[in-house]
Specification:
With 361 residues, the protein is mainly beta. It has 2 domains: 2-165, Immunoglobulins (Immunoglobulin-like, Sandwich), CATH 2.60.40; 182-358, no CATH class. The chain has 5 helices and 21 strands. The protein has a 6-stranded mixed beta sheet with strand order 4-5-12-11-7-9. A 6-stranded antiparallel barrel has the order 16-17-18-19-20-21. The N and C termini lie far apart (75 Å).
């Protein structure tokens, strides 16, 4: 209901029960063109019915769903006119969460003074260590500033977006520079070392006073296939030791957590990889060994840095492009490494898939 007041007073001269021209009636729409993909995946969600005062053609809104692993996420929105007959072009839009939870917060402004055509940005911070779903809802009202005919509508429901926060092994992610100096890199043909990638990777650990907890993949010495307790098996191309071929979900999460914890303590880790060359190891998958030395994140994703002892050029072997991207959605760690690395380029897959992680002593 709209009302006309006597100028300078609170006395009502006229009331118009069905007139909405003096109301601020917006629709808050998610601005897909400004959404940064680093915050998560965007998908279509359920249809929602907005306030009855919004025009029939705009009242049904197809909500958007953001699947994210990010602790902080910035979301852009546009303020559109929600009814063709309203002449009040500005007002207040409030942001509210569907959950009351101290571990889910709106950062910064929760209320915006806006007009049709404006853009706003809402930042959310999630501190929970578990999966959670919630809605971000928008409510409008007139600002009543300098107006003779003041709007009466309050808490007009005018927009929604849904957030699905996925807590994974990559949610907490540090940046860790290589824990082995480049000056201690062990290149191919290094003297005094048996000439194969396994022994070169071991020597790489030894350069900083480290070694693997077990040099054997098999737990037993009688030839029985049984995985050693100090190895995380992430991927197999064949059924081995009671494990089915493919990704090993339980070992993936435990292995990634081990890498994060160990690297944070300044300790490097040996890893086996599959690159589609000749299989000579007990897991019937691993074809090469590398040393994981750091952690980082870029526009492609979250990754582990590695040194590759299969090259004679230390600049290539310790390259900042030697990245293995951690992909929790498919339970894999993989990467193509420095494009100058001829060893990788000559393999069938032209990339490394991490197959096993060996605990460091």
């Amino acid at each position: 209901m709209a009302k006309i007041y006597l100028a300078g007073t609170k006395n009502v001269l006229f009331e118009f029960p069905n007139l909405i021209m003096d109301e601020f009636i917006p629709v808050v729409e998610f601005d897909r063109s400004k959404f940064e993909q680093k915050y998560g995946l965007l998908s279509a969600g359920p249809e929602v019915t907005l306030s009855k005062y919004i025009d029939d053609g705009l009242r049904k809104m197809a909500t958007r769903v953001i699947d994210t692993e990010s602790r902080k996420i910035k979301l852009p929105f546009s303020i559109k006119k929600g009814h063709p007959k309203t002449s009040d072009f500005d007002g207040i839009v409030d942001v509210r969460l569907s959950k009351t939870d101290a571990e889910i917060q709106i950062c910064g402004k929760k209320s915006f003074k806006v007009k049709y055509g404006d853009s706003i940005e809402v930042e959310i911070e999630i501190k929970k260590n578990s999966d959670v779903e919630f809605d971000i809802n928008f409510y409008a009202q007139d600002d009543d500033e300098g107006e003779i005919n003041k709007g009466e509508l309050k808490d007009l429901f005018c927009g929604r977006i849904k957030i699905k926060f996925d807590f994974t092994v990559t949610t907490e992610w540090d940046t860790i520079a290589p824990v082995i100096p480049k000056t201690k890199f062990i290149e191919w043909n290094h003297p005094g070392v048996t000439q194969n990638c396994y022994h070169y990777a071991l020597e790489q650990l030894r350069q900083v006073g480290r070694w693997v907890k077990s040099e054997r993949w098999n737990k037993k010495w009688d030839g029985t296939k049984e995985l050693n307790d100090h190895i995380y098996q992430l991927y197999l191309e064949q059924d081995v030791a009671g494990m089915k071929k493919g990704v090993q979900k339980d070992h993936f999460e435990k292995g990634v957590e081990y890498l994060k914890k160990t690297l944070k303590a300044g300790i490097p880790v040996m890893a086996g990889v599959d690159d589609d060359s000749q299989v000579t190891n007990d897991d019937m998958t691993t074809e090469h060994f590398i040393t994981i030395v750091g952690i980082g994140e870029d526009s492609t994703g979250k990754y582990f840095l590695f040194y590759d002892n299969a090259v004679v050029d230390s600049d290539i072997g310790t390259s900042i492009f030697n990245k293995l991207y951690c992909k929790p959605s498919v339970w894999m760690i993989e990467g193509v490494g420095d494009p100058r690395n001829g060893y990788i380029q000559d393999t069938g897959k032209k990339k490394y898939i991490v197959t096993q992680i060996r605990e460091t002593k």
